[in-house]
Amino acid sequence: MVEDKKINIEKSEVKKRLHRRNRHKTKYNFPKLIKQTPGLAKFVSVNKYGKETINFFNAEAVMMLNQSLLKYDYGIENWDIPTGYLCPPIPGRADYIHHIADVLASDDNKRVPRGPLIHALDIGTGANCIYPIIGHCEYEWDFVGSDIDLTSIESAKKIVKRNDLSVQIRLQNNINHFFDGIINTHEKFDITVCNPPFHASQEEAISANMKKIKNLKGEKPKKPNPSFGGKHNELWCEGGELRFIKNMIMESKRFKENVLWFSTLVSKHGNLKNIYLSLKKVEAFDVKTIPMGQGNKSSRIVAWTYHNPNQRKKWVRER
Questions:
Q1: DSSP class per residue in the chain
Q2: pTM, whole model, 2 decimals?
């Protein structure tokens, strides 16, 4: 496990919306990042507020920053993704992992679970494999990452192999399933995570991309920015985020004996009502909604279990 790094900072520089254990709660320490990743230097400049930063509209700069952060904070020496695939913001992804660690801790007297006896499943791990990386490096959890995209599968396998991570990568052959074909009959998982496609169509994804650029730059862009891009299955699916999550919830009931807690990221607050109705329909015993935020963006995790408190404590004891 990577040792914690303590940095002396002013209170104003702490990102208060991030989880207290998030390594990225402070501003990026560019001098240290550049020292261990010299290639980052050419992308760093001083903004009008006198702060060092990069141009987040530059896909190459974002990629280099991610590589540097993963190396500096998590000891990941070899990380790369194919052109055009989703390059995730590391701080927000780390927040998800820390919050679900707290969900698991809630069943064990608030003791944060660590070690390879904790089994986690990432639905749609993508070419970047980011949730398994952070979960393994922060807590030493044993991870399985699944995806429907062959290029993503091959990319994730390369990352795992090159960095000697305790992560299995499995191909989901049926686009209509989430757990079926991935979870073996007698396999147990303490938690599942998922970052669903947000949009219902390519047009909607492009529109959101353009809107984001306009909000950040204050002017209408001529074309989408690849820094905020990704492939079809990463960004959109038929019915969008809501249908994706509802279908996942419906299928989760079949695997209630295999999984202690299911969870998913929910980008759109307006989808929560229908998600709760779906969880009521499948008779989930307990549901948690965990708010998250990075910068001006707000999202939340919805986690659900079919096990009552006594069953969950028994699960923990037998782990």
A1: -PPP------GGGS-TTS-TT-TTSS---HHHHHHH-GGGGGGEEE-TTS-EEE-TT-HHHHHHHHHHHHHHHH--------TTS----HHHHHHHHHHHHHHHHTTTTTPPP-STT-EEEEET-TTTTHHHHHHHHHH--EEEEEES-HHHHHHHHHHHHHHT-SEEEEE---TT-SSTTTS-TT--EEEEEE----BSSHHHHHHHHHHHHHHHHSS--SS--GGG---HHHHB-TTHHHHHHHHHHHHHGGGTTTEEEEEEEE--GGGHHHHHHHHHHTT-SEEEEEEEEETTEEEEEEEEESS-HHHHHHHHHH-
A2: 0.86
